[in-house]
Amino acid sequence: MEAQQDIEHRLKELLIEALGFEDLTPEEIDAETPLFGEDGLGLDSVDALELVMILDKHFGILIEDPEMGKEVLASIRVMAEYVLNHRKK
Amino acid sequence: MISGGARVGQDGIETLHEALIPWDSEVESSTDSWVSGLKGRTFFATPPPRFGRMDPLSKLTVGCAHLALKDAAAAGSESVPEGIVLGSLMGCLMTDIHYYTPVCDKGLEHAGPLLFSYTLPNVAVGEVCREFRLFGPNTVISCGEDSALAALVVAHGWLSSARASTLLAGGVEAVDTRVAELCRGDSNADIRSSAFLFQLERRDEPLQPALPMMIEGASWFSPSGFSIERSADLGNTGMKRLWETLKIGGRGFRTIDVRDKEGYASRLKIFIDTEKHGSTTRHRTQVKRATY
Q1: Splitting chain A (89 residues) into consecutive groups of 10 residues, what average pLDDT does each group show?
Q2: Which residue of A has its CA nearest to B37?
Q3: Which CATH architecture has domain A4-86?
Q4: Most-buried pick from B49, B87, B201, B215 (CB within 10 A)?
């Protein structure tokens, strides 16, 4: 079973690829940095949908409740914890 | 007046006032085609944060617009464009195909939300307006293989009628190898990616009414009036020749004018004047107005 650190690294790689962060490496993303807002990675609502698709496609996790989405997509660390406990793939 | 311009093509990037810069190995070695390998660093010292998320049409349009603006500024223009007129035959077809292929093959759960937001051709224009803060008129024209020339005619009309005083205008086509093959079918059409954008500025002259926008077909003529075989490049037909004509002028003046002496003639004449060492040369081309 993958450790949380491995999942965090995988999520960072998937995020970089899906959202086209050309000059960013997984090592440069702090797992606790907020994904949304000026103080974080600055993602927007369309990016959030892309992250929801990543969770579904790669981990079999469906996020249908927008409120739940807000919680789960807070940071890479929170996402990885959720994946660890709810993954179906 | 044409105060600056840029083109991006298979051979590299070039501005009206600077020589061609061939692609670096990173773009050239892209597995698909050069248009799929475009990076923010290709055009910008500090790329816009969202550049990597754009589709190839938007990347090409934003990158080429940046080069055209820089070229105009370097040539001494202090004008800031208010809007953009973009001509594109293929528009976002490549993005549409990239979006719908996995959806059709594997189901809706394989749809890409980010890619979906680029499945309209005017999103590329929107990205340019957002990046360069163009708050004036903007549009995309797709009227066949002469869409880019038509965009120049429309931009000229907007300037002549004082709808804007400075505009970006030209044509952008973005297709990768697979989409080009799909579109080519059994024909010999030469379908390839390219971008040509110019900064056009209104000269101090009496205002004219805007010319009708519906345009189809164009032919090129040499300065002496002999017909020149038309380019096979779909969408950006005539733009390569226009570019070469404009480059002749070196750092001299370039103007574009569109005439419709008969009020509603079937063809609109486009005059390009280039000036070098005090001598002016007049080149002309024409676009056929739609006849319905």
Answers
A1: 88 93 90 90 90 92 89 95 90
A2: A22
A3: Orthogonal Bundle (1.10)
A4: B87
